[in-house]
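Mods, move this if it's the wrong board.
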Amino acid sequence: MLVIAYRENNLYSDFIPKVSEILKNDGVEIKEISYPAGTDPEIIGYKLHENLTSIPNSAILIIADNTCKVALESHLQEISEQEQGIFKSKVRTDHVTLDDFFGTVFISSLANSAINLGVAGRIIAVDLFFNAFYEFLRIIKLPYKTVYVIKDELAAHLYEMRGKEEGMAQKISLSFQEIVPRIKINIVEKFHNISTEDLSNLDTLVVFDRHCDPAVNFFNRDRDSCGLGLPLESCMHDYQMKNLTTNMVKPEHIASVLKVMIE
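Not the wrong board. Structure tokens:
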């Protein structure tokens, strides 16, 4: 049995139920386990362990997002070795997380590159990300005069750039300037370095990662302001939902790749 576990966000909540339904119709035994956005990881770890042990199947493959995977691993360290042994004899956790999987499929599709899900750990290469980012900017058009790039948590979803946020911000800036040479780019350390006036200006776009809580909270409240929240697959999904682009990736494509991965 395949179990998909995740903490809800717009991308997963839209795609995973559709993907699950497609796989069920193809004969895959599958179960979704989801937790509301913002659920504390400690609670997720306890609940996910409880949910998985209550499933009668003796052979379970779980593909989880980073939040659920880390939460479960932390919880398992708190239980006895005997309980760990029983759990691990029944449940196998795939090394590819949902974050890796969705990121690779979306970005590979955008960059017109082959999908590689065979490497352990974070599997999105830096050059592939920036090729896809440039293509995304080219597709969405850029009606903006000013762009802010926030370095705080910028590389949270691009592991190879962690500790190199300045370099990542510079590469993002170059992508914008290649498409709109006269666009003004500002690289800032924190969200609060951007003035309220600029944030309310519809000619201004803010690039940030969704692990930057102040930025996420602001753009969740103020839907009229212009934010581009990484990871890139979430940006792509946001623009699809706003009907600003065509469907770059469809649930059927996600399901077909996932089916090959688990076979």
